Amino acid sequence: MSDLITNNEIMNEFHIEGGYPLSGTIKVSGAKNAALKLMAASLLTDEEVLLGNVPLIEDVFIMADVLRSLGAFVEIGKNTVLIKANDLNNCTAPYNLVNKMRASILVMGPLLAKIGRTKVAMPGGCKIGLRKIDFHIKGLEALGAEISLEHGFIDAKSKQLKGSSIQLDFPSVGATENLLMAAVLAEGVTEVKNAAREPELVDLANFLNHLGAKIEGAGTSNLKIQGVKKLGGGKYSIIADRIEAGTFLVAGALAGKDLIISDFKPQTLSIVIEKLNEVGVSLQVETDSVKVSKAQSIISSNIVTLPYPGFPTDLQGFFMTLLSLSNGQSIITENVFENRFLLAKELNKMGAKIRINGHRALVNGVKSLKGNLVESPDLRGGAALVVASLVAEGETRVLNIDHIDRGYENLSEKFNNIGAQIKRIDRKEKKNNKYSQTLNQSFLERVSE
Ligand code: UD1
Question: Where do the domains of the chain lie, and which CATH numbers do they carry?
Fold first, then answer.
């Protein structure tokens, strides 16, 4: 075991015994990156909103607390969330919550549109880069908001947002979403050019249209939003998490034995599936599932991350893991976040040979990885370490799995159900994992379609 861990904080951890084949069926949960946005968007209406297929993950509990802190009623059930935001009595999203999760800044657009004021602490989240918010601010200003940055808070005001034409410098997911949500209740027409095209953004647009918004072009680079006076309520089921599906695909490519990954849309991972084929992984792709088995040998390859439909930055670390076990040299180029290679150091502790040079990683394939003591650097990096541990020789201890809990629902349980040997050690109590047992029934009964 390595003695390199310097942090003395008490951490929850996984103990993973590598080398067990993964077989059976693993079901993909609802998308984190859609759930958080749909929860924020629910602030736009006074009516009741009931969301289904919501993953029970830490970030969802944090977003629920953010909405509650603004005066919304939020009840969490097993994979359902009920929200009613007819009595918002506060416009400030507190530092302690925003600092835990960057997606909290997505209440800015809805609050500005609905109550004309928002004060949000400067965001935190994964330490994967600078993660600026200038596009959000510029875009909201173009819609007529007055914004000042004071004492660590973004303070924005507006009497009535007005439609405008906005050209984004980069197809930022969060900025597109904030602008979309603000524009839905703005006066007149808003166009967002060079908009993000991610499936989770399309889900957000579909949800808003379901509540009565008029959005066209979601999934293309040009969004057109005709503002409406108000939105209604409704029931909506969130799309599957393509990043979780990608996590399982890579695990299957390394340790699968006819492993079926079910309940997601493989077409949202086209480029990833192509890449897996290219490196020698054989896949059987159906409409809602993929069957995958361990590759005989992994062929080295290059990866370049880009906004959707390019190769997703959120899966870059999993491919770094996969290519670490390839037959040669691969280059990974990270174009979306400037600090997303923290995982490399941890993989190297397990015997990988990765060198970082700016936004490129040079990965020299090795024959095997070896169990060690490693620490989750961030959400996806942590999950990639779990995948690496599943094929490493001997035992790996993955520390700081709280990062992983932010975005994966019962990851260890799901892997154990298909043959993995993961023991979860909870050294500190989880505060936020309570949910109502009765709300699920409500999902069927309470709100008509
Ligand atoms: C979202 C996802 C995250 C994913 C990322 C890219 C959520 C909760 N998170 O993050 O999992 O990795 O998309 O697919 O959905 N940028 C600026 N100025 C801005 C906004 C962004 O310079 O105002 C930069 C960022 O620093 C980053 C890049 O643009 O380098 C991409 O960021 P963005 O697409 O906004 O990602 P997020 O919405 O934060």
Answer: 8-29+240-425 (3.65.10.10), 32-239 (3.65.10.10)
Q: How far is the CA of 384 from the centre of ligand 1 (A)?
A: 20
Taking alpha carbons only, the member of 69, 160, 153 closest to residue 114 is 160
Per residue in 104-154, pLDDT (tens digit) is 999 999 999 999 999 998 775 445 444 688 999 999 999 999 999 888 788
- Ligand 1 pocket list (CB less than 6 A): 33, 36, 102-103, 129-136, 170, 172-175, 313-314, 336-337
Q: Please state, in angstroms and rounded to a whole number, the distance separating the CA atoms of residues 260 and 330.
A: 28
In angstroms, rounded to a whole number, what is the distance separating the alpha carbons of residues 268 and 348? 31
| Pairwise CA distance, residues 167 & 254, whole Å | 42
State the DSSP code for 99.
T
The CA distance from 410 to 387, in Å, is 14
Nearest in space to 16 (alpha carbons), one of 428, 426, 427, 424:
424
Q: Where are the beta strands (DSSP E) in 8-125?
A: 13-17, 22-27, 48-52, 73-77, 80-84, 92-93, 117-121
Strand residues in 151-288 grouped as ranges (E): 153-157, 165-167, 189-193, 214-216, 222-226, 234-237, 256-262, 283-285
CA–CA dist 319, 312 (Å, integer):
11
Length of the chain equals: 449
Pairing of strands 395-399, 373-375: parallel
Locus of tokens 């992983």: 404
For ligand 1, pick from 170, 242, 339 the residue to mutate: most ligand atoms within 8 Å of CB: 170
Using CA atoms of 211, 215, 221, 222 in order, give the dihedral in degrees to the nearest 10: -160
Q: Cα(39) to centroid of ligand 1, in Å?
A: 18
Q: Which of 56, 75, 25, 35 is nearest to 408 (CA)?
A: 56
Task: Tell me the pTM.
Answer: 0.94
Residue 148's H or E segment, with its range, is strand 146-150
381-428 pLDDT, tens per residue?
999 999 999 999 999 999 999 999 999 999 999 999 999 999 999 987
List, in sequence order, every beta strand (DSSP E) within 280-410. Answer: 283-285, 289-292, 303-304, 329-333, 353-357, 360-364, 373-375, 395-399
Look at ligand 1, atom 37, and give the residue with the nearest C-alpha.
Answer: 174
The DSSP-derived string for 37-55 is HHHHHGGG-SSEEEEES--
CB 114 within 8 A of CB 98: no
Q: Which atom of ligand 1 is nearest to the CA of 308?
A: 14
Q: How many CB atoms lie within 10 A of CB 295?
A: 20
